[in-house]
Amino acid sequence: xxxxxxxxxxxxxxxxxxxxxAVMSASPGPWIPGRVTILSIWPRRMxxxxxxxxxxxxxxxxxxxxxxxxxxxxxxxxxxxxxxxSFQSTLQGRRPVLAEQIARACVGxxxxxxxxxxxxxxxGLSIIVGARPTVEELARERETQTGYCQAxxxxxxxxxxxxxLRPLQAQIALFRLCAEWLGVxxxxxxxxxxxxxxxxxxxxxxxxxxIPHRAQVCPQCSKxxxxxxxxxxxxxxxxxxxxxxAEMLRMRKAGRPxxxx
Length: 261
Ligand SMILES: [Zn+2]
Fold this sequence. Notes:
By secondary structure, the chain is of the alpha+beta class. It has a domain at 11-146. The protein contains 9 helices and 7 strands. It has helices at residues 11-26, 99-111, 114-118, 135-161, 165-170, 172-182, 188-196, 225-231, 242-253, and strands at residues 35-40, 46-55, 61-70, 79-84, 86-90, 93-97, 125-128. The strands form 3 sheets. Strands 4-1-7 form a 3-stranded antiparallel beta sheet, sandwiched between helices. Strands 2-3 form a two-stranded antiparallel sheet. The longest helix has 27 residues, at 135-161. The radius of gyration is 23 Å and the shape is flat. The model is unreliable at 1-8 (pLDDT under 50). The structure holds zinc ion.
């Protein structure tokens, strides 16, 4: 698995880290950062990456990429993510980043989705008041997400009716997720894609799962998969991706430049 490359801290970052350490040690008693909790009833794991000052294992402040991830909510359940006040190092030195700002950035990213968001629909992801959701907060998210999923299904129906298969295909993973969450299984587009099956390992370029078996271009990252394998000088084996393999062998037979292997 590729590891995130962490470059050594710049002079500014070292100074900022020292400053954070000073602030922390100057606080009376232990430093207690503010916290904000995000609630999700969305059935998929969501991640937002931000560059922040964080504390290393031993408590030393350090600047780096931080992944804020909220797990997929189980059916009829929910997931929580608590974020804390932090710092960002800038050329002017450190700048506090409140938990509220981090949480808003996460929810803003995660709840903004495709064309549906423009119509005011969004998945059930939001900031809650306490550390645990209240009955009202859960009910509100369920109502929000029900509207979102219904809108997604209506959108998929409309695309199929209009014969616009390309945008339907591009968003099919989302449409299917919404249909599953609502327990709607009677749609032609839902069954078609169940039968078509997905690539065993998803997209080799972006890691997206649920890439249609026959796709030669990833609907998520738009990477041409023939090009992807070609640039790495290899042909996927039969088990890995028979469709892209067949295409690459066909191209080679036709005398077109394609990877050996
Ligand atoms: Zn991809």
